[in-house]
UniProtKB/TrEMBL annotation, chains A, B:
Protein family per UniProt: Belongs to the ArgJ family.
Binding site for substrate: T163, K189, T200, E286, N409, S414
Pfam families tied to this protein: ArgJ
One of the GO BP terms on file: L-arginine biosynthetic process
Gene encoding the protein: argJ
Protein name (record): Arginine biosynthesis bifunctional protein ArgJ
NCBIfam families: ArgJ, PRK05388.1
UniProt enzyme class: transferase
Active site per database record: T200 (nucleophile)
Purpose of the protein: Catalyzes two activities which are involved in the cyclic version of arginine biosynthesis: the synthesis of N-acetylglutamate from glutamate and acetyl-CoA as the acetyl donor, and of ornithine by transacetylation between N(2)-acetylornithine and glutamate.
Quaternary organization: Heterotetramer of two alpha and two beta chains.
PANTHER family, alphabetized: ARGININE BIOSYNTHESIS BIFUNCTIONAL PROTEIN ARGJ (PTHR23100), ARGININE BIOSYNTHESIS BIFUNCTIONAL PROTEIN ARGJ, MITOCHONDRIAL (PTHR23100:SF0)
Marked site: Cleavage: A199, T200
Length: 414, 414
């Protein structure tokens, strides 16, 4: 792996946020030496009996053993508690039959140490693909992880799951239901191999809400669609993408029932946590120097809006132009054109921030290259494209494509 | 535009090839100062009466005025001769109504100077998008271009159409029909904004074959599918992609009729010229240091084979690994997985050249990292992926992704 010593220039100024304690969850992390040395690389979260677990996962046809294992366990009996374990350094993906064996050894060890049914042990692995996971390095540390479990251990957990990330990522929200507070806290990792149309990377969200598994799953799936499924760093999709949301039910607020105003309020809070985490992943995009919001409006259909936003957000030529602080709207036109979605050159309008650059099939008569060039110096670039054909819209988030990306990825493994 | 002083390390050792004279065609090129200074930037080819013209074009919904104009003229009456004009420096794309006006002014001037119907004047423009084409700089040079027309001017023409290209591209072939030779000579430009599923870039092919327009069009469309539609530099699709093939009928060989063995022989020769030109475009890919052939076999369908090959050939993580001479087959697994095509992890096999790296869902027991790392030092990398599900296959060609690409594109326009 290329050593990246410096933190992303887009990292939050205040560092890792103060996340609230979520009743019913404890966290632990330590150094197991899976691959890295001198840093933590495993985390464990224990969830109290009754905790329900929902999740969304990569749709890759070559997804990892841990992903396959989690997917089948989501809705299992929640009465006896649950645990989430994550290691970084090795993704245990494309490791043949030994992959599933490693997952079995780890879940077995956690199950026996914590006294929780194996069916309720959810694991994730992130890091290099195709190398055997040395599971003994992990199973020998489970008792030590158990001994370290603390209600306020989430910051350590956020750090232990990092790979090429340059900063740990966390977000939280609160919502009041029946006069009582429900708290939500989440952590994420991700920097490269990030593309929409899946869950994304590793994300763990904890809440003390009382909520049925099926209701939580529905809200998580819907929120994924406008958050993690709307980000891209490099158009490449991981084999390990996992988002797990766990609700302990420890709040004194009443249960959240499907289709109620309370469910809507909870959804809004959940979505805000997921949106913030997804943005943090983009802001730590490999080599990123600009955070880019692509707003597509006026498309003929939701599918077309997403196609166009994705085509722009994934275009190497658009992303290198933004890296060069060049308001090169011609490349945006190119990306709209190649998307396969319905578009009419003469109805397009393109804005960088509030600067109208193109309309009616050409550069705007009032376009000021100076104003546009000055806007491009911002860290946060909003690229607005109106297709002029309908009412559908989609917003995606990406970063620029820089020398840093090449440096990180041209010798990641060697 | 970033100045790239050095020629691509993948450029042909012998320089521009000796292309045969094609009876019935003359070429001219000169400096018109459209955008560049100190180099030629316009070319004209005049075709004798009876010449038929076929072509394939970008499918972009924002394609340029010249592309739209060429598309409607292809099958028009060939009795009165034809001409092909190309300028570099400005693509005349997304230039609103003024785009079509510029095409009109240029074709009108050529028509009047050469005495050829406007319907038979095919033009292309390549370069920056969205700036008005200063057509007067071109129309004032038409008589000088006419005066310079020469049967052996094709090398000059190949140079005049270059933009970020670091070398001029040409290829030729011969085929014997009825004991008489038919000659084919082609030129191309292209370096960035190159992606499959369209014609690609600018390509002009000339032959003295006697052939009906509909037969030539059919052969050109078929050959495009396995040549220019199988290359990618950066997954971005130009708004100006144009391939024009002109047959003068000046050979003494008999006419090529559809469905005959002669048509097959001619097709093979035509395809070889198109394949060579398409490879030269990849070898001049922006920043390229490796020429990469992605061979996918064993897919469930032709569409799936193409999806997988395209997913691998466009993956920034695969391409940066190749730049770093890293046999990172895990990233190949990732690209297969995200393609959306049917794949079974445990049936995949992956080879770098002849080095078997992965099979049966894991690294091969005989895999030698040393042998693979040594293979990656080659200029020409063959990446072979067998899906193990069916009999469909697809080969695509691409290049690596390097710092050179970022340097060229992060300030192309500023």
């Amino acid at each position: 792996m290329a050593k990246i010593e410096s933190v992303s220039p887009l990292a939050p100024v205040g560092g890792f946020p103060d996340l609230p304690i979520i009743d019913g969850v404890t966290f632990s992390s330590l150094e197991a030496g899976v691959r890295y040395t001198g840093r933590t690389d495993v985390m464990l979260a224990e969830l109290c009996p009754g905790s329900v677990v929902a999740g969304t996962f990569t749709t890759s046809s070559t997804r990892s053993a841990a992903v396959l294992d989690c997917q089948k366990k989501l809705g299992s009996d929640a009465s006896g508690g649950a645990a989430i374990f994550v290691n970084s350094g090795n993704s245990n993906a494309f490791t043949g039959k030994s992959g599933l064996e490693a997952v079995g050894k780890i879940t077995e060890a956690i199950s026996s140490s914590l006294g929780i049914n194996e069916n309720r042990i959810f694991t994730s692995s992130t890091g290099v693909i195709g190398e055997p996971l040395k599971w003994e390095r992990i199973t020998t540390k489970i008792d030590a992880l158990k001994a370290g479990l603390q209600p306020d251990g989430i910051t350590g957990a956020a750090k232990a799951i990092m790979t090429t990330d340059t900063f740990a990522k966390g977000a939280s929200a609160e919502v009041t239901v029946g006069g009582e507070k429900i708290k939500i806290a989440g952590i994420a990792k991700g920097s490269g191999m990030i593309a929409p149309d899946m869950a994304t990377m590793l994300v763990y969200i904890f809440t003390d809400a009382k909520i049925a598994q099926s209701v939580l799953q529905d809200l998580v799936s819907r929120a994924t669609n406008t958050t993690f499924n709307c980000i891209t760093v490099d158009s490449d999709t991981s084999t390990s993408d996992t988002l797990i949301a766990a609700a302990t039910g420890c709040t004194s607020a009443p249960e959240i029932l499907a289709g109620t105003p309370e469910a809507n309020n909870f959804f809004t809070a959940l979505q805000s946590v997921m949106l913030e985490l997804s943005h943090l992943v983009v802001k730590d995009g490999e080599g990123a120097t600009k955070f880019v919001e692509v707003q597509v409006t006026g498309a003929s259909s939701d599918a077309d809006a997403r196609k166009i936003a994705s085509s722009i957000a994934n275009s190497p030529l658009v992303k290198t132009a933004i890296a060069g602080e060049d308001p090169n709207w011609g490349r945006v036109v190119m990306a709209v054109g190649k998307s396969g979605a319905a578009a009419d050159r003469d109805l397009l309008s393109i804005r960088f921030g509030d600067v109208l650059v193109a309309e009616n099939g050409w550069v705007s008569p009032n376009y000021s290259e100076e104003a546009a060039a000055s806007y491009m110096k911002n860290d946060h670039i909003i690229l607005r494209v109106d297709i002029g054909l309908g009412a559908s819209q989609c917003t995606m988030w990406t970063c620029d494509l820089t020398h840093g990306y090449i440096t990180i990825n041209a010798d990641y493994r060697s």
